[in-house]
Each structure stands twice: as structure tokens, then as C-alpha cells.
Recover the amino acids of this structure.
């Protein structure tokens, strides 16, 4: 009787909860989307399935409690007690040997400084978990390193970067698209580039671009390419993790082109106290490092 009452209360609670969830007090009634017949049928079937599972669960609990003496007698049978199915049956009668292992509490001959060792089994859950890690390690090694079916972290990163590049709009603000500018040679542009360099770049690269915190910009060695459009790209987008900030948004495109042209005009000037070369020597047709 108690079980039927409990099931009735649970069913009533589920129906009330569904009715409350179906309401949308925050949304205007006129704009509420109508519920289709398929959605009503889906939620009805889902509610009936939940009620059925609850009914089966409570029925199983009641049957187990009522049949516990008979199950205990069956569990005490020698042929059943030591079998694996018997250990599963033991969980129903209160014996957790299948999970905790055999607890014999028998002392061994090991005795150290008054500490005695008991002869108990490792918990089965621990042993099965350890076996699982061994199997997982073998499968992982075969999948990633032997047959090379899966992608390692570097390959996954490269694929993710390629996928991310698809969402970047192609244009002057695309860091993956190299510009095709030509160096500015007019004295006015070079003078403007020098002013931008002195104000923004000299603190790291030196007043004569001899290099301080940043590299020397007057030699033939470059970390990220010494061709005009590579210099332009480095100035505009910066270098993450290397102290080179992105000047995009702080300098206009023309100012970046002017300062890039000015930097290239300093090649071979050999200023005093020049910093040792860094990077690779710029050679025509040689690939440069990526940003």
C-alpha cells in the first residue's frame, strides 16, 4: 500500500513539474511558440518511460526486501557462495565482498616496529581499475604511436588552426594573408617612418635600431623575415609571447608601411653597440619563420 501511494505521489509530482516547465511566464503570451503534436507526444512518452522505470525500481526493491530470507538461504549454499554470481547475489543480502574483496583479518608474519600486516585482498574495484589502465595504455600506444591512426597534439593544433583560419575574414586584417606592398622611398615617408620609430619602437630596438630588448634591425639577420611585407606583418600583428606587441589599431596602415620602409632603409648602417645577430640571414627565395 505504501508503494502504491509513493508511486502515485511521484507520478503527480512529475505531471505538476512538467506543467510548470511548459509555462513561460517571462515571455509574452502572444509571442509564445505553439507546441507541436510531436513534441507533446515525445514528452508524454518520456514521462511514461520515467514512470515505468521508477515503478520497476520500486518493485524490485520491494521484492528484494520481501525475499531477503530466501535469498540469504540461497547465498549460504557452498556452490553459490563462492561463485561470481553468488557474489552478485551477496550485494542484495548485504555482503559487499564483490566490491570490497575478501576481508580475512589474518595476521601475517610481517611485523615491523609493532605494526602488523593483515592478509587481505586488494579491493576488486581497485584491481579492475588497474587492469583497465593497462589495457588503455596498450590501446593508446597502438592507436597513436604504432598504427598512427589518431592525431597527436601538434597535428591536432595544426588542424584547429586551419579550421580557425576559415572564420577569419580574408582582407587586410587577415594575419594569414601576406600583403604585397612595395617599400616607400619618398623622403617624406621615410621621415614620417623615422618619427614613428623614434616614438614607439626605439625603447625596445634602440634609437638607431641597434637592438636593446628587441633584436638589431640593421643587420641581415631576421627572426620573422626581413622582406617588407614580413616586417609589415610583424609590426601590425605582433609576436605572441615574445614581447613584440601588435600595433594594429594604434598605428594606421600607412604609418606601419612608413615605419617598415624606414626600418629597411637602415640595413647595413652598422650603428655603435649593435646587438649580435639573431635569427637567420635573409636570402631571396628562402622561407621565413611563421608568426
Amino acid at each position: 500500500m505504501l508503494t502504491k501511494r509513493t508511486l502515485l505521489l511521484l507520478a503527480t509530482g512529475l505531471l505538476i513539474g512538467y506543467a510548470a516547465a511548459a509555462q513561460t511566464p517571462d515571455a509574452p503570451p502572444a509571442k509564445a511558440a505553439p507546441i507541436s503534436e510531436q513534441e507533446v507526444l515525445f514528452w508524454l512518452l518520456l514521462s511514461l518511460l520515467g514512470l515505468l522505470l521508477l515503478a520497476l525500481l520500486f518493485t524490485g526493491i520491494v521484492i528484494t526486501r520481501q525475499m531477503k530470507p530466501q535469498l540469504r538461504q540461497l547465498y549460504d549454499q557452498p556452490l553459490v557462495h563462492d561463485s561470481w554470481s553468488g557474489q552478485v547475489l551477496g550485494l542484495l543480502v548485504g555482503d559487499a565482498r564483490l566490491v570490497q574483496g575478501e576481508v580475512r583479518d589474518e595476521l601475517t608474519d610481517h611485523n615491523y616496529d609493532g605494526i602488523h600486516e593483515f592478509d587481505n585482498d586488494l579491493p576488486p574495484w581497485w584491481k579492475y581499475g588497474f587492469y583497465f589502465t593497462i589495457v588503455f595504455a596498450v590501446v593508446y600506444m597502438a592507436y597513436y604511436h604504432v598504427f598512427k591512426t589518431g592525431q597527436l597534439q601538434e597535428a591536432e593544433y595544426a588542424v584547429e588552426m586551419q579550421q580557425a583560419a576559415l572564420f577569419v575574414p580574408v582582407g587586410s586584417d587577415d594575419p594569414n594573408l601576406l600583403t604585397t606592398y612595395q617599400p616607400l622611398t619618398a623622403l617624406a615617408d621615410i621621415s614620417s617612418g623615422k618619427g614613428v620609430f623614434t616614438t614607439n619602437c626605439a625603447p625596445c630596438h634602440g634609437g638607431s635600431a641597434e637592438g636593446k630588448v628587441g633584436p638589431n634591425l640593421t643587420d641581415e639577420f631576421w627572426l620573422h623575415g626581413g622582406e617588407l611585407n614580413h616586417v609589415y606583418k610583424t609590426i601590425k600583428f605582433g609576436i605572441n609571447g615574445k614581447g613584440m606587441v601588435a600595433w594594429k589599431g594604434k598605428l594606421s596602415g600607412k604609418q606601419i608601411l612608413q615605419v617598415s620602409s624606414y626600418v629597411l632603409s637602415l640595413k647595413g648602417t652598422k650603428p655603435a653597440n649593435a646587438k649580435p645577430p639573431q635569427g637567420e640571414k635573409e636570402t631571396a627565395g628562402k622561407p621565413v619563420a611563421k608568426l
Q: What stands out?
A: The mean pLDDT is 83. Residues 34 and 40 are 11 Å apart (CA to CA). DSSP finds eleven helices and four strands in the chain. The beta strands are 107-112, 115-118, 221-222, 280-281.
